[in-house]
Amino acid sequence: MLRLLYTEASPFARKVRMAALERGVELRLERTTVHPVDRNRALGEVNPLAKIPVLISPEGTLFDSRVICRYIDRRGHGPSLYASEVADPWDILTMEALADGIMDAAVNTRYELVARPEPLRWPEWTAAQFDRIHAGLDRIEDMVDRLRSPHLGALALGAALEYLDFRHPDRPWRGRRPRLAGWLEEFGQSAPMRATPYPVEAMA
Fold first, then answer.
1. Which CATH number characterizes residue 53's domain?
2. H or E stretch at 62
């Protein structure tokens, strides 16, 4: 069976878990830990970057989330997550890249605000990360019509938006993006989203 090393708080791991549910690919979930400073040596033995998610498959060890989702899509059943009647493959890949960039900025900002000692924090850097997040959301607001099916871009975006709510509730994003907010309200009730909620508390 495929083994996924993950944390419940990781938006990248959540994207992978949702992809597996959509494609009917069974995973054995194995929780691990990550920290921006304290390297997980056991995790580093399977991924030299010591980052998650990691998929251990018969073909070898795979990382990062985009690679793993491609692999899961190949093994799955039914329509590909990279094909849709409402978005062409390049739209899907672009939306996934935007969502991944938003997640990356949001996770890094979480580490900055929680793990870094307060005297060493860099407010201008944090502001720049949120500028990236909001610019990405503005672009996706104009692409909502291409999110009307559970393709990989939609799964990644669902994980990203709920991560913002989870880790940065003091940074509201819905106000000037009513179409995106409405989409998440509906998509958040889908089976993959409801099956993979973020935990109450964790580092990542």
1. 3.40.30.10
2. strand 60-62
